[in-house]
Design a protein that fits this description.
alpha+beta; three-stranded antiparallel β-sheet; about 15% strand; globular
């Protein structure tokens, strides 16, 4: 048994380069602000390295792209050097993106790109592109143009009246309904429900690898349904509480604290799975505490995307429903993969312990990565 543990631990360490979060392709977030004075400002939070390396939406991880080395080279540049590289790309970027009023392209000016320090090369870096312009005297509904090759993105329109705000997560190549300043967005009700359920689900599957590993850790503890239900219920209640409190501004912790703790929670469930195969009283309590942390992580993502003011509660609940559906999908996939063998004598030794070791080592690695970064 001891020899088997050592072998699996060694394998887990060897797999660490495959589970880094640095190269996951994330959607851009575009915010269009139309002031009552007619001034337009557009901020685009996006990976400049991703654009320069021309890695398309068919790759969920930059390491899988044929030009991954080019991406890594851009990622290693300091802000000044990367800004100089991006300067040559600006004309192409401005030609492929833009704001249209009634089908007519509005003239926008490239103001600047703000690039964070290099930091940890194993973590993604999002820059902020700032554009400006003016609304025409007779404005028609606005649409944002974003090419499919740049991947999925979140588009947010903000007017002088909060009730006019509109946001939606768009898949690569997908277009949104036109938005007219001064008019409350017609998109509401079921449209918001569908959009935010999809956003919540996608935050777990496929984008939430850390949350996926945590849920798998809960699944692996015991072959019985009861322990899983207790843990999932505690986790759901907890992250629902902190998601709501964080979104409403009642609770706030910096990501520099939350993200390493989330990673440590993953490591803990993996380690305890190796030590005990039964649901201990403290396990449910700890899972509840860990759920509070994960809820703050969910809130960070939702705050980046934004919530429509007129449908705030609807969007928040829908996002949470999407998260739950994502978690259930992970559990269902795990059951279909290994659940058939849960009553076998070798199930714990050959499946639970090896998989839990990989989860634990991955969590520890992420914790170190997030603290060091």
């Amino acid at each position: 048994m001891r020899e088997l543990l050592i072998r699996w631990l060694g394998l887990a360490v060897l797999l660490l380069p495959l589970v880094g979060e640095a190269h996951t392709v994330r959607p851009a977030v575009v915010t269009v602000n139309a002031a009552a004075s007619g001034e337009l400002s557009v901020t685009i939070r996006v990976s400049a390295e991703l654009l320069l390396a021309r890695i398309g939406p068919e790759y969920a991880d930059t390491n899988d792209a044929p030009n991954a080395a080019e991406y890594d080279a851009y990622r290693a540049l300091d802000p000044q050097a990367l800004e100089a590289e991006f300067a040559g790309f600006v004309p192409e970027f401005m030609a492929k993106t833009g704001l249209l009023s009634g089908g007519t392209r509005l003239p926008l000016r490239f103001e600047r790109i703000e690039i964070p320090p290099v930091g940890d090369l194993e973590l993604a870096r999002d820059s902020e592109i700032v554009l400006s312009g003016e609304l025409p005297a007779s404005v028609e509904p606005l649409t944002w143009s974003w090419p499919r090759e740049y991947g999925g993105h979140v588009i947010r329109f903000v007017g002088s009246d909060p009730a006019q705000a509109y946001s939606v997560w768009l898949q690569p190549g997908e277009t949104h309904e036109p938005w007219l300043p001064g008019v409350t967005s017609a998109r509401g009700g079921w449209g918001v429900v569908v959009d935010y359920i999809a956003i919540g689900f996608e935050h777990i599957v496929p984008k939430g690898l850390d949350h996926i590993l945590f849920v798998l850790g809960l699944f692996l503890l015991s072959a019985k349904l009861g322990p899983l239900l207790w843990q999932v219920s505690a986790f759901t209640v907890a992250h629902t509480i902190t998601l709501g409190l964080s979104i409403y501004g009642v609770l706030a912790l910096p990501p520099a604290i939350v993200e390493p703790l989330i990673a440590l929670s993953i490591a803990y469930v993996g380690i305890e799975n190796c030590v005990s195969g039964k649901l201990q009283p403290w396990r449910v309590l700890l899972v509840f505490v860990f759920g509070l942390l994960h809820g703050m992580g969910f809130a960070g993502v939702l705050q980046e995307i934004g919530l429509p003011d007129g449908e705030f509660v609807t969007a928040l609940i829908s996002f949470n429903v999407g998260v739950e559906l994502g978690q259930l999908a992970v559990i269902l996939a795990a059951f279909l993969l290994v659940g058939w063998f849960r009553n076998a004598d070798w199930y714990r030794q050959r499946i639970v312990i090896p998989a839990s070791l990989v989860i634990a080592v991955t969590g520890l690695y992420w914790a170190w990565e997030r603290i060091a970064g």
